Amino acid sequence: MKPEASVPSNFIRQVIQADLESGRYEGRVVTRFPPEPNGYLHIGHAKSICLNFGFAEEFGGTCHLRFDDTNPLKENVSYVDSIKEDVKWLGFDWDVHLYFASDYFDRFYDYAIDLIKTGKAYVDSLTPEEIRSYRGTLTEPGKESPYRHRTVEENLELFQKMAAGKFDEGECVLRAKIDMAAPNIIMRDPTLYRIRKRPHHRTGDKWCIYPMYDFAHCLSDSIERITHSICTLEFENNRELYDWILDTLDIYHPRQIEFARLNLSYTILSKRKLIELVEGGYVDGWNDPRMPTISGFRRRGYTPEAIRNFCERIGVAKRDSMVDLALLEHCIREDLNKRAPRFMGVLRPLKVVIENYPADKVETLEAINNPEDQSMGTRNIPFSREFYIEKDDFMETPPKKFFRLAPGREVRLRYAYFITCTDFIKDEQGEVVELRCTYDPQTRGGDSPDGRKVKSTLHWVSATHAIDAEVRLYNDLFTVEEPVSAEDFKAVLNKDSLEILHGAKLEPALADLEIGKQCQFERLGYFCKDVKYSTSDHSVFNRIVTLRDQWAKVKKQQGANERK
RNA sequence: UGAGGGUUGGUCUAGUGGCAAGACGACGGGUUCUGGCCCCGUUAACACAGGUUCGAAUCCUGUACCCUCAGCCA
């Protein structure tokens, strides 16, 4: 697929193009998405997935899905499964290129032996604390371990014993012999292997030594003949080591390119913190619709197209940035506007009785399924004397710019009639509980023959025909734009991030909407039938995103003025 | 105070020596049987200071500020 003319270039594409022109990798483009299976994928990973699979596709190359499973303490198969599902759902296909770093453990071991034999690695018996203090600081050089000058034979023997389980965890490690005074701390004899007497989810009990990221990653890239190893900025310092290992071993050498990870306003994109939300019970699992995980967005009702489009629009660069959540919302609205069928649903019902409409009469009215797409056709909606409208659509004493229903005012019921409010009934608490109206029979279908205008159109649902539903309204999970910079991110969780409405009234056609499918509730927003809690006789809808709302802005503005 | 990166409207991203562009947002208007969509318009940026040049966001020098690194995590 060729990039759209409107898609701006970026520095990674330029590097790839330059390599293609110079013939550096014989015209090949091979990328990889290398998740560690220790958590669920989030929208930040989606950016990386789109980049890696996107470039491969753009240049006729391939992209590998490779699990970076080098730490048995944190990883497990359930994460492997969820990651595969999420990548697939996003619309990408790794074809036969599914790999695991753990499949290379034998080769890693051989490379480690090579390093030892050439005097470039040694077994260190310092304690973890000693290693830390020997490392020096950012401004002071470190000092060499007393074990640094063990002979090749001794190192070989010790390393083999490590692998054979002769040492306890923490007793020794394999280190690269580079330079304890290196200005880049990463290069001060980095650890290559550590002892972990834990079974691995794929290799079982075969190994009790496991390679560190820096050792495993560059070797995996090299083994798979990756051309462009695209990763995030925090690995910039590690590139020197990536290059050192491959150069020292004198093996195939991909190019590492770093980009800035995604930050999204009002959300958190840190696996560790997301795990905390899940395990602390702050959310309803990894796929809670408020979570910025791929599975959370999926359950919420986002489409893969919207997320991919978002990833394209945010671009890619090296500077730290904070993308406005409004852009993501724009992307899903844009996609669903074209595709989602429209329905009428009343979230907070207010009963209306048409006094001059026969009590036993029921009419069938025709409604358009999607004004953006005539091919989606029409459907029938029942209309009768009693129906529900949105509580928000009536005000006893309307402020300026409120165009909806009020005493004495005429509005249109979508696809139905013009009605005029003649009276309203309040309960003991003074809350309006019922409206009495009259209708104009001449306006059937929503147009008046005399050409008179109304200032607004309301959605409605016939009382006797309505189906009941539970509707879940989601708001930002956090109250501040940058939750990570809060002293405790859990303290800035939005208490109103989920609002559950039990008495919603929906038009009957919604009973047939497939679970998991998106639709628009006219004038309110996009919703989808929740896959977790919906059953055949109990509908639960998730609000994906509201429609843009001019009135909400005006109301907010008016509120602000009053407070002044 | 070491090393590696970075700095273009409110936000994100182009621009690679020759008119600072696009998207989102905000604001205003048009249209409308969704206060939606769509359309039109407005707003608003090259961190700073020098230098090179006919000409600098772009090249050079310096300064400021921001990010990353002292895991046997990735």
Keywords:
disordered N terminus, 564 residues, 25 strands, single chain, 23% strand, RNA-binding, alpha/beta
Structure description:
- The chain is 27% helix and 23% strand.
- α7 crosses α8 and α11 (304-314) crosses α12.
- It has helices at residues 11-22, 43-58, 77-90, 105-117, 128-134, 152-163, 213-223, 239-249, 271-279, 294-300, 304-314, 325-339, 550-563; strands at 30-33, 62-67, 98-100, 121-124, 173-176, 191-195, 209-211, 228-232, 255-259, 342-343, 345-346, 349-354, 362-368, 378-384, 386-390, 410-413, 418-426, 432-440, 457-458, 461-462, 467-474, 498-506, 518-521, 525-529, 539-546.
- The longest helix is centred in the first third of the chain and has 16 residues, at 43-58.
- By secondary structure, it is of the alpha/beta class.
- The protein has a seven-stranded mixed beta sheet, with helices on one face. Strands 19-16-17-18-12-15-20 form a seven-stranded mixed beta sheet, with no helix packed on it. It has a four-stranded antiparallel beta sheet with strand order 4-5-6-7.
- The structure holds one RNA strand of 74 nucleotides.
